[in-house]
Amino acid sequence: MPIRRNYIKYFTIVSMLLLALVYIYFMKRTPILWGYHQFYFTPKKYKYTLLRLSSERNKLDSDKQPNLDRVFIQHFRNLMPFWYGTRYSFYGQTHTPGEGEIACGYFVTTVLEDLGMEIDRNRLAQVASEEMIKELVSIKSIKRYSAYEFEDFIESVGQIDDGLYVVGLDTHTGFLLKTQQNLRFIHASGRFPFAVINENAHTSVTLQKSKYRILGRLTNDHKAMKIWLQ
């Protein structure tokens, strides 16, 4: 009888350890799990990342840097894991990912400010998305899709240049990241899970429901890159 009890005890301990390891494994990859920000993408690491990216940006020269767009997108990718899972709130204004809450407009302007773009974070976060986009990029980098059905919108976006875009919707805003393989919609979602998420644009309910859509291309835009490097 004691042998059986010991067996059950050891089995329980091993099982709990295995479950803990599995949880830790997925915790690093799933922003909505508890521990994602506390252990992996902490505010301290975020500040260090901002300093490192700022140092790299200060060494760039727009006239001599052939891959400026790639660098900008890579900096954006470096920041995003810190923001994933940050809670959404219509009035959220947090400046620290993983702490407090963030609204969709503030998510966009905070990320751009943290990337090094000299903008009025608060004012731009509160204006209509089209007005925000007009201040960020040149007119030639703006495309409107208000009269498009969702399927036509996705098909049309599939034909534009790869890069990072700010997207404006009826009452929402976020980023579209287009590559040859994917089209991702990255935003502070007012739908479940009510957090900053990176989702497939082709299946995004938020993109589907909006009747108004406007894109402003940040990459390969002289105005946006000038704001970034000034």
What does this structure look like?
Strand 4 and strand 5 (173-178) form a beta hairpin. Strands 3-8-4-5-6-7 form a 6-stranded antiparallel β-sheet. Helix 3 (43-58) runs antiparallel to helix 4. Helices cover 48% and strands 15% of the residues. The model has no long low-confidence stretch (mean pLDDT 91). The longest helix has 26 residues, at 2-27. The chain has 230 residues and is an alpha+beta fold. It comes from Emticicia oligotrophica (strain DSM 17448 / CIP 109782 / MTCC 6937 / GPTSA100-15).
SSE blueprint:
Elements lengths: L1 H26 L8 H5 L2 H16 L9 H16 L3 E2 L12 E2 L1 H12 L5 H6 L2 H8 L5 E3 L5 H8 L5 E6 L4 E6 L4 E6 L7 E5 L4 H5 L4 E4 L4 H8 L1
Parallel strand pairs: 1-2
Antiparallel strand pairs: 3-8, 4-5, 4-8, 5-6, 6-7
Protein name: Peptidase C39-like domain-containing protein
Keywords: Membrane, Transmembrane, Transmembrane helix
Query: With helices defined by DSSP (H or I, 4 residues minimum), what is the helix count?
Result: 10
Average of pLDDT: 91
**What's the oligomerization state?**
single chain
| Ends apart, CA distance between termini | 76 Å
The counted number of beta strands is 8
Assign the structural class, choosing from mainly alpha, mainly beta, alpha/beta, alpha+beta, or little secondary structure.
Answer: alpha+beta
* Shape, principal axes of CA atoms: globular
Report the sheet-strand fraction.
5-15%
Radius of gyration using CA atoms only: 21 Å
Name the strands of the widest sheet in spatial order: 3-8-4-5-6-7
Count of folded domains: 2
- Please outline the major beta sheet: 6 strands, antiparallel
Helix percentage? 40-55%
Organism: Emticicia oligotrophica (strain DSM 17448 / CIP 109782 / MTCC 6937 / GPTSA100-15)
Keywords: Membrane, Transmembrane, Transmembrane helix
Protein name: Peptidase C39-like domain-containing protein
Transmembrane segments: 7-26
